[in-house]
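Protein data sheet
==================
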Amino acid sequence: MTRRRLLPGLVVAALACGLAAAGVPAAAQSGVKAGTSPVRTSPGSAPVSATGAGLFAVEQYRPAVLRLAFSPAKGRTVNPEADAFLDMTLIPPEGQLLGFRTEVSSKQFSQLLRRLYAQLASQELLKVEDPASPARQLDAMLMQPAAEQLRRLRISTLLISAETGLQAVPFAALHDGQTFFGERYGFSLTPSLGLTRLGIQTQPGGSRLLAAGASQFEGLNPLPLVPQELEQITRGKQVGSYLNRDFTPELLIEKAADPAFNRVHVATHAEFVPGGPAAARLYTGVAPMSLRQLAQMRQRRGDAQLDLFTLSACRTALGDADSELGFAGLALQAGSRSAIGSLWYVDDVATSALFVQFYRLLDQGIPKAEALQFTRRAMATGAMKLVKDQVIGATGEVVLSGLTTAQQRRIAGGLQHPFYWARIQLLGTPW
């Protein structure tokens, strides 16, 4: 079955103007030319009008770019505790770009971020009814300056270009007093607009997925749900699926470089240690491979860019200072339009359930950012839940089954806490 693609309608004149005014060099404005749209509907790609059991409607789809950057204040602030400016540039789908500047204390920002991560890691109540809570204060600092304009322009989707110092923010867990940011918006993050191709990618015959994973390891905890995760996400698709000893470093590089595949899903352990890309490890079914090895994909694929590279692994979105955004960030550099990784370690039951639900929505033609948004919402609202030994998805379908008593116990309290769903980060192109 050929996937019907939804193509966003950004107006490139406003986008190109906005990128230039936001300080992005012309060389970083990949593929943007005056009078042309890098993302427009082609004759053979009719957009879906309403998919995902009414979750998504194309007429309400309005993507925009939001650029966030810190700059030193050098004593020019009104607030004596502020030592930096947060500069925000909103590039809407049409019209003029909008700029915002607020004074911030870098010390306060770091403290709030640490406190939020501590709350998420321990699954504490975030106390979002309290404006002084970290989730509320960070939302007020990072999102509220543009919130009114986002509502006025009816923006549904954001490509957030976050400079160094902002890439570790768990944006999905920020809260405005009514809803979490990850429920309100479909969004993706990019460390650089120069790494993000805004155009669309077509695949003759529809999407073809490469799925690889490992459930058994020497010296590491097993991931017993990986086989079911791969089975569920590949069901009914044109796929290549490789598990445990069939999943080797050579296999991943060779198959991921094959233009016949335009999506790659990898479910395994990963770890970051000091030393940068050469030291970071992704565990295959036979041996670990270094982050640096993924760079071979770009050379081998040439112009046939991957559409999505998903890493269903532990803490893959962020690495050390040398690893930038970790495995997922390198997937962008290696030639993937979008990548998905995790910001922190999390239970494998919740991880597998999230990705199975995400791919089911994606397969219905829902854009990546919205498929992830609706999955978050299903978890946050309790629509995704444990029933006996099964996890039931957003529309009542079975996502996982046959859970052991121990696995059931781990999510018996529900999946509503952002610990379970705010960790998954989409990088690169949101559509």
About this structure: The longest strand covers residues 63-72. Residues 106-122 form the longest helix (17 residues). The radius of gyration is 21 Å. Residues 1-53, 320-324 have pLDDT under 50 and may be disordered.
